[in-house]
């Protein structure tokens, strides 16, 4: 009689979680599209001044219901509702709409983000970025590559670009003001990266990280992030051959900040962000 190694059992179970994550990301995306560019959409302000809508809350409710039905022992942490503890050792991290500001202004670059953490290590084992308005999705399970799909086309292996320096690359960020909010002096980091890059744009949030993972951009930087913003990014970037790190270069989703690169430009970027 043979037994399956624990690591293979975990991978098999997490593969099932990935399939669910992909399925419900699409469902949440379709839900949000009902509100997208709707002139009657009501926008509220949370305590920190950031916007929230019925689309954010309804999408997270949908995600939570589907997860609880399929994996009732898993924990769930989302942006809009209190954490649900679990006992399985796996925790789902949800951002029902990453980029609510673009969403409420009708910009089709918002995303739905889903990740699952191994609670023993605190590290994500899988991630999904779904961009419902543009019809794109990228997903990754650690050890199994990152895969990109556009519309009804077959999924293809995601791969970062081969650009060797920022002077050849596209630098993205979600919000230039985030650099100043972090520390007024940190604005210099933004301008330094902008000057070094061939092109810079603010096609940010989850969509910007997907751009790096599929080789359309070389660098995406956030000066401030929450766990639900970051959790899905590390497995996707790393499985696509790139990096996701803190400003000091630590490969973590818990730093409250983020740098995604194609790997080749990482040292050049860290020379500007370390110690800031």
Give structural notes.
This protein is α+β, with helices and mostly antiparallel strands and 276 residues long. It has helices spanning 6-33, 54-70, 100-104, 176-182, 187-196, 205-213, 227-230, 233-239, 266-273; strands spanning 43-45, 51-53, 75-78, 90-98, 111-118, 123-131, 136-141, 146-150, 156-157, 170-173, 199-201, 219-222, 243-245, 258-261. Helix 1 runs antiparallel to helix 2 (54-70) and helix 6 (205-213) runs parallel beside helix 8. The radius of gyration is 18 Å and the shape is globular. The model is unreliable at 1-6 (pLDDT under 50). It is an enzyme of class 3 (hydrolase). Its EC number is 3.1.3.15. Mg(2+) binds at residues 79, 95, 97-98, 229.
Instruction: Say what the CATH topology of the largest domain is.
Output: Fructose-1,6-Bisphosphatase, Chain A, domain 1
Spans with pLDDT under 50 lasting ≥5 residues? 1-6
> Could you state the order of secondary-structure elements as H and E?
HEEHEEHEEEEEEHHEHEHHEEH
Q: Radius of gyration over alpha carbons?
A: 18 Å
The counted number of beta strands is 14
Determine the number of helices (DSSP H or I, runs of at least 4 residues). 9
The number of domains: 2
**Strand ordering within the main sheet:** 3-4-5-6-7-8-9
> What fraction of the residues are assigned to beta strands by DSSP?
15-25%
User: Per CATH, which architecture of the largest domain?
Assistant: 2-Layer Sandwich
Instruction: Indicate the mean pLDDT.
Output: 94
Characterize the biggest β-sheet.
7 strands, mixed
In whole angstroms, how far apart are the ends? Answer: 57 Å
CATH level 4 superfamily of the largest domain: Fructose-1,6-Bisphosphatase, subunit A, domain 1
